[in-house]
Specification:
The chain is an alpha/beta fold and 379 residues long. It is built from 17 helices and 6 strands. Helices cover 49% and strands 8% of the residues. A hairpin with a 2-residue loop joins strand 3 and strand 4 (64-69). The two termini are 36 Å apart.
């Protein structure tokens, strides 16, 4: 895209309505009924709670911004069908749509994701804050992304930030859509958004028994595996009890350090030579017990990780086919000035190399069409 001059027209003070009472809902519903499209965003408390909750819903409808408190116990059965019935404009919608699906089985009818659009236009900084600064000269305090959105009351700066997230989306969509039309990539965008609507219905992956295998665990073979398994489950138990994210109990780096010390043959006393910060006195006794349990665990009795097909060894023919398809992908990406993974990711290349007939199931139609026209596919 060419240089975009910041617009003074889109330089608020913002006006919005914070909704935490049932009597405020009719005005919102009236706006949703008369609007033709909706800009939508959410804020959640995933950095502060063991199980994530959606805390705030930001809606721009009929030129009005509404911030809906989802922790206020409002009767919202009439909200979700209204939102689903209108085209949505969102940025980085995957996480939000999965949250809303798990909250109330919400699924939109139509979507325009400004992050997808920016990626398909090869804009290197495609985060919302960067796009708003590039296009409108707006300054967004990104620190609020990490704020505790479950706290009440929400302060004015947080509400202003939340409102800003939806205020610019229609104008940003218009600019990005014009570029997509110019480059002939509108259908690419629409396919990606339709896919996103469907995949969001999967929600988030359920707990996996192998989640305890944190980075670096592949280098453990003996006692360290048993210790890692025990202390990871210890951490999960405390995180749930304290209603806090596991990394705020003990980080993965500390888990790995303890497990490696056990793997290296150090004694329990040496392994336990660390401090847990302000919660040390409360947590250390049970952690020490978990380490002792890990020392006594035969690593061969631990659950085995099932090897996903894309990670199993490939035959020489499959490897050669993958290299040819990858070369075509990279050449196409360079010609379109795209990130190659927007055409096919590494795991998708593996699946296609193993089973070329699966290409239409693995890729979006525009991606498959591009690759099928290339030499590797015809050979």
């Amino acid at each position: 895209m060419g240089e975009i001059v910041p617009s003074s027209v889109l330089n608020p003070p913002l006006h919005y309505q914070f909704i935490d009472q049932p009597a405020q809902l009719p005005a919102l519903y009236a706006a949703l009924d008369r609007c033709t499209e909706i800009a939508l965003d959410t804020e959640a408390d995933n950095l502060f709670r063991y199980k994530t909750k959606v805390c705030l819903l930001q809606i721009l409808a009929a030129d009005e911004i509404y911030l809906v408190d989802l922790l206020a116990g409002l009767p919202l059965d009439d909200l979700w069908p209204r939102l689903a019935a209108k085209p949505l404009i969102m940025h980085g919608s995957d996480y939000d749509l999965r949250l809303l699906w798990e909250l109330c089985r919400f699924q939109p009818h139509r979507l325009f994701d400004t992050m997808f659009a920016a990626q398909l236009l090869s804009i290197p900084r495609f985060g919302l804050a960067a796009l708003l600064e590039q296009n409108f000269g707006a300054q967004v305090d990104k620190d609020h992304q990490k704020a505790n959105w479950s706290q009440r009351p929400l302060d004015r700066d947080m509400l202003d930030y939340a409102a800003t997230d939806v205020y610019y989306l229609p104008a940003l969509r218009d600019r990005l859509l014009a570029e997509l039309h110019r480059l002939g990539r509108v259908e690419w965008m629409e396919q990606k958004c339709r896919w996103q609507i469907e995949v969001a219905r999967e929600g988030f992956a359920p707990p996996d028994e192998n989640n305890w295998r944190v980075n670096g665990s592949e280098r453990l073979r003996g006692r360290g595996l048993g210790v890692l398994h025990a202390i990871w489950h210890w951490r999960e138990g405390w995180a749930e009890k304290l209603n806090t994210p596991p990394f705020k109990v003990v980080g993965n780096e500390m888990l790995g350090r303890i497990a490696r010390a056990a793997e290296e043959g150090r004694s329990i006393h040496e392994v336990l030579n660390f401090h847990l910060g302000r919660r040390h006195d409360r947590l250390f006794p049970s952690l020490a017990e978990a380490v002792r349990k890990g020392f006594a665990t035969d690593p061969h009795t631990l659950p085995r990780r099932e090897r996903r097909r894309e990670f199993s060894p490939m035959s020489p023919d499959e490897l050669a086919r993958q290299d040819r398809i990858k070369a075509d992908r990279d050449r196409l990406a360079a010609g379109f000035s795209l990130d190659p993974t927007l055409i096919a990711t590494r795991s998708q290349l593996v699946l296609i190399a193993r089973d070329p007939a699966s290409i239409d199931a693995v890729l979006l139609p525009w991606q498959a069409k591009l690759l099928k026209a290339e030499p590797a596919w015809k050979s």
